[in-house]
Amino acid sequence: MNSNVENLPPHVLRLVYKEVSALAADPPEGIKIYPSEEDITELHTAIEGPEGTPFAGGVFRMRLVLGKDFPAVPPKGYFLTKIFHPNVGHKGEICVNVLKRDWKAELGLRHVLLTIKCLLIHPNPESALNEEAGRLLLEDYAEYESRARLLTEIHAMGGHGGTSGAPQDPNDGPQPKKHAGDPMKRAGPSAAAVPAALGNGANGASTTTSNSNSSSTNNVAGKKKADKKRALRRL
User: Fold this and answer.
1) Residues marked as catalytic
2) Distance CA 199, CA 203 (A)
3) Residue 62 belongs to domain with CATH number
4) Where is the active site (predicted)?
5) Residue 164, domain member (yes or no)
6) Which of 15, 25, 190, 207 has the most CB atoms around its CB within 10 Å?
7) Using CA atoms, how far apart are residues 152 and 161, in angstroms rounded to an integer?
């Protein structure tokens, strides 16, 4: 997404810079702020998964994007770390009222971040972007919790939000490892082909010898036939 720095009026930029600086100096509990010196309209954060939820122990990377009409229009929020949650779409988009109809310019970015963190504690299946997560939350909480915990362990426990910034996919899982240590696969021509090549060579030599013997036999037989014809002519 392109920067909106040039689209925002100077007084709005000053207010945003002031608020982001205050957030970085005194962030909300369980949230880290990573302001960008190059683009103040895109705020990267890391949210710790709240205790007592399937997200506990994970760190979820997220970004807020301020559009050209901010603060009249709410920012857009995206999870960069994959998460199985009713209110987070497959591309990471976040559905929460404060980013829609409940937005007010005076609320500020701190309120938005705290609301999104609370969303991890109290999902809202009634406005689900991930319909499967919303259905499981209502009908089979144990399965919902298991799926959410699994993705947390895979994607959110390897550092600041794991290694994931890709589009969301609840079916993602660990990928099989490549077998780089197999010597039969490391060699240029495969080692398994060497005996085969040797075998082919031996077979080739055997075939050549057989053909040579056959040719000698044919020559002897032909000579005998010629001798017989000459003897018959003499009679």
Assistant:
1) 95
2) 6
3) 3.10.110.10
4) 95
5) no
6) 15
7) 9
